[in-house]
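Bench log, entry 3. Co-assembly request; chain sequences pasted below exactly as received.
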Amino acid sequence: MNNAHPGLPEFDYIKPATLPEASQFLAQHTGESRPFMGGTDTIVRMRDGFWKDKYLVEVKHFEGMTSIHFDPAKGLTIGAAAPMNQVAAHPDVRKYYPLLAEAANSVASYQLRNRATIVGNICNASPAGDTTGASIVLDGVLSVHGVNGVRTEPLKNFFLGPGKTVLKPGDIVTSISYPLPADGWAGKYIKLGRNALSDLSIVGVTVLGYPDATAKSGFRFRIALASVAPVPFIPTAAEAVLAEKPISDAVIDEAATAAMDACTPIDDVRSSARYRKLMVRNLTRKALAEVWAKIK
Amino acid sequence: MSTHKINVKINGGLEQVEVPSNMTLLSMLREKLAMTGTKNGCAAGECGACTILLNGEPVNSCMVLAVEADGAELVTVEGLAHEGELEVIQKTIIDKGGVQCGFCTPGVLISAKALLTRNPNPSEADIREALVGNLCRCTGYVRIVEAVQAAAEQQKGAA
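Structure output for the full assembly:
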């Protein structure tokens, strides 16, 4: 490469007046256009030549896209274009969804988080997405505006592969909503990077636990793992262990080992697969123990 | 490729600039307006040399399209000093020896100023967290952190 900093390739920046117009435009230009939010991935990928879109379609200006709203009866709704810093600093997020604030604050740097968004993080479908795990265990549901109108997409079946989701041409995610968390819950996000702050994760472990009378153990744990599979990974076998057996150090250990056995990481520039597996076990155990200490 | 006429307030002065769709805010500052205080380091949102204030909040200007800044207010390193009088953080970074090659300094100053605005009494951990996105290969950060601490002290004294 002759130029260490190639400029951005040519494209047109489009700012539609309405959401339906934006969806129409995106659907008409399938494969050569994409919604433009904070740009923290888009600009890098276009500059590096991985994405070759002819059109970037502005969506941040639509109504509600940057709002954060908490309803004590229904839960939290975060506009798709609300910057992570605003989410992490929001009093209701800090009070009722501290796990989400913790996850958002673990992303890159302060100035990057002034542009990066949780919905963007999710839609890019990187297995490493820091806020994806918290959004999964908190049962986040996306509101999507498509060519046929508005619908919702739960995160459970949203991810198809690295960078691939169930979203269709013309779809614009407008917000993510989280129901009220279960009573007495606690959560933890442990991110292992090559440095203590700001790096992408080698492994990310999100754990949420709460008392639940319908579980044999009396407690329900939700676990989401980052950077250890082609998609954000939910180790259901580990969750099942914790729902079935009375919680103890040995059972936490068993669940952590089940999480390790279930994930399918790769070797890459950040870590070997083997190291990732071992860290999944250790960090899952650590996160579970911390959450258990808070809810037991 | 389409171009856009944008109005933007930079360091207090109004500018009208014609920018192509694919021009970043960083390129606009450096190449259209010859404001070369803001540096191009990694061009990928990692190093923070291009940090400016966009409507009061620090952003990597290499990661923002110029056209997005229509109607916005920007502050760059050139806007920190007023009538020849340096901003407190500029003075303390000189006093503490927080500048060596100087390439990261404009971004560091902007991040530090933003931190001191939102948190006038930051702990060392707060300072290091706020400067995570400003890489410095010379100083080892210790003197930069000391400069921010000194600026916080002086601002408290002045208030």
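Chain A has a mean pLDDT of 95. The interface with chain B takes residues 4-5, 7-13, 36, 38-40, 43-44, 47, 56, 58, 85, 108-112, 114-115, 197-198 of chain A (CB under 8 Å).
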